[in-house]
Specification:
transcription; disordered C terminus; mainly alpha; HTH tetR-type domain-containing protein; DNA-binding transcription factor activity; single chain; TetR_C_31
């Protein structure tokens, strides 16, 4: 329990202040635990970063499993848009930490191994989601969808512009699903189309 508390605080710290702010003492303060707690669980910086990457993967896997469940009752583009809205809303700090950690791992082979393992798990879950949504080639669809999600998330957390709305995320997800070769029932967003894309006569 205390270990998870420390890792959650560490991810929040990196998401809000960057990797340079990550020290064992700073995590203790952020987690509101006794001094030395983080060091007791993670003896050095690499161990702490590896633990953070592992928790990040667990959280993302949980979110993707929820997506699998929602995709059985929602159009796929709605399920994907809701996931993106969550990662750019309540979980935005974790999403920002995600890319900070990925860049840190790119220069550290020991950490890169954890990133690769996490990406494989996420890709496997995305493949399941694509297959359940009717993709003709689930593995190819998973690659397209995870690349799309990465692009949207990275663009949003590194931009001073406002976060895309759920409607905008849904349109983008719709296009990505077409590119991924996913087959889904006809959607009912014509009214949204009319509001978002008025004709010249309007």
């Amino acid at each position: 329990m205390r270990r998870e508390q420390v890792l959650t605080a560490a991810l929040r710290l990196v998401g809000e202040r960057g990797v340079r702010a990550l020290t064992h003492r700073a995590v203790d303060r952020a987690a509101r635990v006794p001094a030395g707690t983080t060091s007791n669980h993670f003896r050095n910086r690499d161990a702490l970063l590896a633990g953070m990457l592992a928790q990040l993967t667990e959280r993302e896997a949980t979110d993707l499993r929820k997506l699998l469940g929602r995709s059985r009752t929602l159009p796929p583009e709605d399920a994907v848009a809701d996931l993106l809205a969550h990662w750019l809303g309540p979980a935005r700090s974790r999403t920002t930490a995600r890319y900070a950690l990925f860049l840190e791992a790119a220069r550290n082979p020991r950490l890169q191994r954890h990133v690769d393992e996490g990406r494989r798990l996420v890709r496997d879950l995305a493949t399941q989601a694509a297959a359940s949504a009717g993709a003709t080639d689930a593995k190819r669809a998973a690659w397209v969808l995870t690349a799309f999600i990465d692009g949207v998330l990275l663009s949003a957390v590194t931009s001073s512009s406002s976060t895309p709305s759920v409607t905008e995320l849904r349109y983008a997800a719709h296009a990505a699903l077409i590119a991924a070769g996913v087959v889904w029932p006809p959607t009912n967003h014509q009214d949204d189309d009319a509001e978002s894309h008025p004709t010249a006569a309007s």
